UniProtKB/TrEMBL annotation:
Keywords: Cell membrane, Glycoprotein, Membrane, Receptor, Transmembrane, Transmembrane helix. It is found in: Cell membrane. This is Variant Ionotropic Glutamate Receptor. GO terms for biological process: detection of stimulus involved in sensory perception. Its main location: membrane. Belongs to the glutamate-gated ion channel (TC 1.A.10.1) family. One of its GO terms (cellular component) is plasma membrane. Residues 332-428 form the Ionotropic glutamate receptor C-terminal domain. It comes from Penaeus vannamei (Whiteleg shrimp). It comes from the Eukaryota. It is a multi-pass membrane protein. GO terms for molecular function: ligand-gated monoatomic ion channel activity.
Amino acid sequence: MEAERGDRDLLEDASGVVSAVLAEVVQPTTSVILLTDGTSSASAIAKVLRRVAAPYGVGVFQAVPENGIGNSTRDRFSEVIRQARKERLMSWNVCVVLVSEDPAFLTTFADVALRGRLLVWATKLLLVTSVALQELRAFLGSRWVFSMMNAVVMVLQMEGLLQKWDMYSHLPYSPAGPQLVSVATWTPAEGLRIKSGHGLFPEKFWNFYGATVNVTALPFPPYWSVLEEPSASSPGRYSGTDFLLLEATAEALNFTFRVVPTETWTEVADRVVERVAFLSPIFHNVLPARLERYEFSFVYEFGSLDFSRAKPDLQPQWQSLYYPLSHAVWLGVLATVVVILRAMRSRDATGHAPPTSPLTLGKALQEVFGLFLGQNLSRVFYSSVRARVLVGAWLVFSLVVGTAYRGNLTASLTLPVYPSRPETLAQLVLVADRITMPSYGAEFKSFFGKSDSPVFKRLSELMHIVSSVEEGQRQAILAK
Ligand SMILES: *[C@@H]1O[C@H](CO)[C@@H](O)[C@H](O)[C@H]1NC(C)=O
Ligand SMILES: *[C@@H]1O[C@H](CO)[C@@H](O)[C@H](O)[C@H]1NC(C)=O
Ligand SMILES: *[C@@H]1O[C@H](CO)[C@@H](O)[C@H](O)[C@H]1NC(C)=O
């Protein structure tokens, strides 16, 4: 293979420049991923491994294209990228060195690495190549991993027998628009010379120079509220904490933003994945299913999940007569009434009452309940001491109970008592028939469903996805 490509081994030539650049950027926790297209010889790889400083180790990956780049090559590439990404996830910070002279290989790498999320901004990418700059220029600008990520391209120029490496970085935003800037040169004699102005790995997003950045968002108070729908004549007006955060960021980084219209939360995320929009400024909980799709970098807000229920109805009116006293008190009063009625009747039976007004059961009931309602006793002559004591005791009893009842009744009518409500998730899943969540809740439903906790499992079973929070609340009120 080396013979086919002449007697030059690009990686062998690059060992000096690569080690010089790495020495410049490596931190005590850096590891290096070396990715080649299979044209580098084992001795060249060994030479680089000897010379580069990578305190946390070097991973070497080869993705060898077979008869041009077809689907099977792409699949193999994806596997290599998947392994390399695993290494990146296990490392503190990573420098990826990509070595190839084959534009088709580089294009495929760019697409597969983007889909496989090999790079995040903290990952530095060094592309080592000898492809002519004119050929590279257009394609670097059109590939996200080279234009927008933290990438530097090293191009080998042979000046006679002398090597010279030029290093470039693509700046997507500058006063003159997107451009490729020269950041450094390296020659064996002079070593690494970093040009002033940009630094070796320029920061690309400190200043957008007034560019328009697409964002996606849907109403999600209090984070994002729409005050005025966008129309042909106006970009719309928004509010909310995340909107204010975006506005402050836009001012600091000198960009304006446009809200790309979307219908669902899935679209909100998809537009960002497609890079039609660069960000969705609404906070996004970390869920295992989302880790399959997104890299999470920084937590700026802790959000809790809360539930709301329809306010329960008050008890029907007739029941509020019963409410003021507890069950035990009512039972006690009932028992006392029965006892007192029996006692009165037996007094009647012993003939102590005046014969003119025989005390029937009806009359006795009247006497007993009359006192509760604040009526005085009928003018019955109670001759015996026993009868007077009995009636006296009843008077006191009915006064106390009657006053207590009237007081409690007034209080309970003024301050109605609502039935107790669920305050925790465990209580909620016991009483709720149905729990609704807007469209983004689908991921929560499946997440809760996978939990070992019976409470979360039950929550997942009860959850239904509806179009919006308001729709869910409307359904809760209707179902009450
Ligand atoms: C490669 O994959 C694409 C989409 O997955 C398919 O349309 C195409 O036919 C495949 N090509 C070959 C040569 O298998
Ligand atoms: C913001 O961008 C505009 C347009 O390119 C430019 O004129 C201005 O100087 C920039 N502001 C800052 C603070 O860099
Ligand atoms: C931003 O959105 C507009 C319209 O929604 C679209 O035409 C444009 O291509 C988008 N910009 C980028 C960089 O994708």
